[in-house]
Structures are given as C-alpha cells and as structure tokens.
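Budget justification aside, the reviewers requested a transparent look at the raw inputs and outputs of the sequence design task funded under Objective 1. We therefore reproduce one unedited record. The lines immediately below are the structure tokens for a 599-residue chain.
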C-alpha cells in the first residue's frame, strides 16, 4: 500500500470526491467516525437490501428449473421490488397455510359425500333433520339399517359413518357418536381451494417479479452504499488554513498508484505520497492463489492480519484440509460428502460463494477419502475383514495416535519457522533470532528422538546434540528483546523459555483430538452397523427393509455430527496452536476503496 495525502481548496471538495469515487481505488482514511441519524438510516437501508437479496437468491436457486417463474418482468423501482418481496412472501406463507387447512377440511367432508347445506336447512324447516354419526366397524349394528332410514358410508380409517333421517323422534345408536352437522360441502371447499390457489399464483408471480428485480435492488444497494461512503468521508475530512483547505488521506495498492497519479496530475490538487510506517494501520488486500482463496473464508472467521504481518491463509490451508480428513477418517463418508459437494458446485453456477464453499468441501472430502483408505474404514466397516484386502497395510489405532502427534508437532515447528520468516521480513533478522533458536531447539530435539529410536547415535546425550541445543538456547534467551540490556534479555528470555516449554507440551497434546474424533466416528458407525444386523429380525423381506432404515438413519446422524466436529476442531487447532506459534496478532482492516458509480 502507498499512503496518499491530498490538499485541495474546500470549494473544490465535492468535485474532487466525485473524481476520487469514479477512480474507485483509494481507501480513504476515516477516523473518529460516529454515524449521525441520516447515516444510521442509510446503514439500515443497506441491511434491509442485503436481507432481501439473500432471500431472493435462495428463492431463485429453488426455482432454477421453473422457466415461467424466472421469466417474470421486473418491477419499475427497487423500492417497489423490496416492498413486493416482503408482501408476496407473507401472502405466500399465509395462503399456503390456508390451502393446507382447506384441503384437510375438504378431506374430512369428502367422507359424507356431496350435499348442499342450503338444502339441509330447507329440510329442517319442513321438520326433516339429517343427523351425522360415526362408530367403529365393530360397534356398528347392521340392524340399524333396517330399523332407521340411514345411509352408510365406510371410511378408510376403520370407522363407519352414516346419516340418519329424523322427524324429531329419538334415535338409539349405542356406541355411535353424533357429529356436528357440516356447515359447508366438499364442493364449497374445492371452490375455496381453487380460489386460494389462484391467489397463490398471483403472489408467486409478484415474488417472481421481485426475483427478476435483483439487479435493480443490487444497483439501489450500491447507490446507498456510495451515498453512505460519501457522507462518511465528507463528515471526517480534515481541514487546514482556517478551514479553507481540505485534507484527504487514503491508501492505494502499489499496482494502482499510476491511475491516481494520472487522474490528479492536472486537477489543481497537491498530492503527497509516502510509504507506510509502523504507526500507520493501512488496509489489507489479500493476494492468494486459487487454492488458498478457498480458505480465506476460514481465516476471515478470526481476524485480518496486520499490515506488517503475513497472511497465514496459504500456510495453514493444507493442514486444515488434512485435519478435516483425519477427523472424518472414513472412506464411505468421504465419498458421500464429495458427491454432495460436487452436485452443489455444479448446481450453484451463479453463486460464487456457494461454489467456493462446495470446492472447499470437495477438498476436505478428498482428504477424508485418503485417510479412510489409509485406515481401512468404509461406513464403519474394517476393510481388512474382507478376504481380498486383509493383507493390505492399513494403519491401526496406535498408528493413527502417533500420526496425529507427529502431524501436530510438524505444524507447530512449521509455524515457528513461519514466524521467523515474518519477523525477518518486516522487522529484521535480529528480531527473529530468539524465535529461530527455539524453533531449532524443538526441531533438533525431535530429530534426536527419531534417530536415536532408529539406532542412529544421535540422542539427547550426544555431544553434538548438547552443543547444538546450547547454541540455540543462548540465541533464544539472549536475543529475546533486541535493543535492551543483556540483563533484560536474560530475564525476559528465561520467562519466555518457561512459557515455550510448558506451552509446547499442551500444544502437541491438543492434536490428539484429531485421532479421538476419527476413532469415535468409526466406533459410532460400527455401532449402527451392529444395530442394523441385530434389530432387523428374521422375516425375509422385512429384515432388509428394517436394516436399510437403521443404516440410513444412523449413518446420516453420524455423518452430520462428524461433519460438525471435523470443522470445529481443526478450526480450533488452526486459530489457537498454529496462529499462536506463528506469532499472529491480527488487527488489520480489509481494503475498502471509496467508489461512486458514474451517473
């Protein structure tokens, strides 16, 4: 980033800001901004637009194959579209509920057949009353049909419904329950349903027009954003020379500075440029490759890096995906989630965020497939139990326990060297000596353990190991605070060493959760497999139906719970263990250039 300071006459401020907004590359510095009443209204309007757009995008995705729905004409204004979106959505919900109620009432009336309620009223006026009864099939007495003038209607629910004609006399139907006379007929309800369906079609068409107006709403949202941005900048622009001169500060990415220089070369504006200092807080513009950009949604959950910090996204991305694979750890589950993510990726062609999420899930699912193949688990079943696969070298539980510890130690050491690189790049090598000494101490100690276990004469009692660690510890202790006295370095170095030693053990042990989650997922899957076999019974056809139901239900629950755990715990390891050992501090703000559409 390059720091720009613009000096201009106050009378030229509006023209200058219009030019600045058209360029759209300067992130104007806004300090001590407190939104006034009008700005709060603009913020609320933007939030309303965002909520409507999010809802309409979901509606559009759900109706992607309905050509009639998507062919609707847009509204004339964004305000009309937003208002119609809310009204039509409320109407659709209410009408849908009314239709469900009317259908239920129609089905209840259908058992009595078609009749005219007005005719019943006329008969009652002449002293002829039709009375409605319900009884169970067992309690219905066939003699009733001979004793009384009744019409019998058998229902599908095992009950018998019948209508008896009464001239005011008592009717004795023991065990039958008299029902209240229906106030409407089946034909009335069907007419009501058709009317509601017509209203629903009108409401859906109104919502379809709102969906067709999404670009209009997005444009209006951009206008409000530009108005808010302009208002914010105007309210915080600095002044000099008794208020006759306006001072505007901002930040421009290095590759875009030529555009700004050319735009204001002949505009009568004094321009100063400077490199950022430690005291400045320039905005952050992340630059990652296509793979690492998928994990930016993960790093954004925590914080933006400071200007003089590395963006850790490309450094933790492979580890995060590997950790998800270890936690998921099942070949079958990995295949299922991969296929689901692939389907979502293909279906969401017009939703970039959804496609990014789907792509990340595909990578994580691929890692789960790899780890499931290594451990030999397929929907909780051990592949080595099958005769053709029993001799393959699958990893056992203790192997996975060791693997989780080793992967954790590798990531921690890797994070330490990332911190060394970052300190060297932004502060100078002397600020990285202490961290480098500790990182090399941990690395050499790990190598000594591995080599001595393999029979190589390089253990903790080796003179070479002792000499190396002594040098590294001197660097770690006496270069902990560059620029301070030797006594200050010694004191802070010892305290830092104590924290490093005690923290390292806890950090490494935290990675056991990777093994534990993968193990628990496999055990629960195996339990559902056993339940499906033991609870299916012995009836030939029914046995397999019950087995399939238990398997589908059990593995769906386990897959859902495993997916949550496989996301949360790698996230925790990334933000706690890796970020801490990489020296991440954060506190940066995202690059947000001041831009206004050309009218």
């Amino acid at each position: 980033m390059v720091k720009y300071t613009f000096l201009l006459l106050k009378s030229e401020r509006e023209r200058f800001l219009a030019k600045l907004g058209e360029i759209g590359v300067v992130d104007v510095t806004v300090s001590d901004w407190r939104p006034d009443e009008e700005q709060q209204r603009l913020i609320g309007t933007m939030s309303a637009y965002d909520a409507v757009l999010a809802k309409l995008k979901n509606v559009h995705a759900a109706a992607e194959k309905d050509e009639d729905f998507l062919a609707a004409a847009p509204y004339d204004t964004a305000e009309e579209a937003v208002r119609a979106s809310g009204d039509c959505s409320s109407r659709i919900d209410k009408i849908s509920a009314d239709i469900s109620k009317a259908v239920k009432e129609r089905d209840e009336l259908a058992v009595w057949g078609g009749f005219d309620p007005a005719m019943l009223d006329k008969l009652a006026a002449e002293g002829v009353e039709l009375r409605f009864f319900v009884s169970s099939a067992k309690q219905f007495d066939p003699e009733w049909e001979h004793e009384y003038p009744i019409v019998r209607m058998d229902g599908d629910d095992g009950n018998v419904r019948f209508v008896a004609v009464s001239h005011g006399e008592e009717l004795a139907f023991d065990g039958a329950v008299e029902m209240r006379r229906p106030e409407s007929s089946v034909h009335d309800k069907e007419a009501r349903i058709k009317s509601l369906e017509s209203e629903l079609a009108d409401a859906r068409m109104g919502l379809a027009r709102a969906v067709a107006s999404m670009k209009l709403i997005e444009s209006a949202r951009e206008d409000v954003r530009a108005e808010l941005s302009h208002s914010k900048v105007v309210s915080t622009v600095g002044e000099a020379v008794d208020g006759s001169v306006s001072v505007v500060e901002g930040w421009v990415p290095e590759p875009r500075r030529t555009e700004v220089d050319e735009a204001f070369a002949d505009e009568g504006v004094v321009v100063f440029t400077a490199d950022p200092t430690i005291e400045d807080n320039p905005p952050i513009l992340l630059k990652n490759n296509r793979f690492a950009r998928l994990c930016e949604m993960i790093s954004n959950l925590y914080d933006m890096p400071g200007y003089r910090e590395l963006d850790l996204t490309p450094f933790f991305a492979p580890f995060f995906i590997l950790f998800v694979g270890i936690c998921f750890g099942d070949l079958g589950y990995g295949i299922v989630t991969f296929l689901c993510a692939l389907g979502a990726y293909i279906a969401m062609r017009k939703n970039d965020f959804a496609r990014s999420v789907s792509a990340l899930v595909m990578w994580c699912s691929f890692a789960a497939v790899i780890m499931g193949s290594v451990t030999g688990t397929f929907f909780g079943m051990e592949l080595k139990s099958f005769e053709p696969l029993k001799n393959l070298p699958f990893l056992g539980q203790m192997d996975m326990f060791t693997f989780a510890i080793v992967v954790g130690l590798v990531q921690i050491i890797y994070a330490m060297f990332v911190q060394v690189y970052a300190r060297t790049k932004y502060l100078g090598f002397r600020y990285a000596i202490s961290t480098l000494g500790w990182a090399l101490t941990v690395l050499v100690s790990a190598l000594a353990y591995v080599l001595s276990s393999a029979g190589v004469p390089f253990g903790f009692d080796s003179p070479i190991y002792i000499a190396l660690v002594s040098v590294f510890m001197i660097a770690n202790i006496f270069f902990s605070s560059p620029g301070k006295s030797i006594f200050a370095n010694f004191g802070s170095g010892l305290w830092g060493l104590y924290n490093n030693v005690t923290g390292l053990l806890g950090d490494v042990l935290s990675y056991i959760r990777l093994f534990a989650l993968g193990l628990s997922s496999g055990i629960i899957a195996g339990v559902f497999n056993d339940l499906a076999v033991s609870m299916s019974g012995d009836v030939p056809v029914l046995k397999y139906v019950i087995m399939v139901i238990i398997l589908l239900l059990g593995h769906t629950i386990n897959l859902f719970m495993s997916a949550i755990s496989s996301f949360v715990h790698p996230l925790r390891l990334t933000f706690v263990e890796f970020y801490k050992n990489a020296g991440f501090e954060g506190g940066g703000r995202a690059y947000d250039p001041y831009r206004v559409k050309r009218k």
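The chain is about 60% helix and 10% strand. The first strand starts at residue 2 and ends at 9. Computational costs for records of this kind are itemized in the attached budget.
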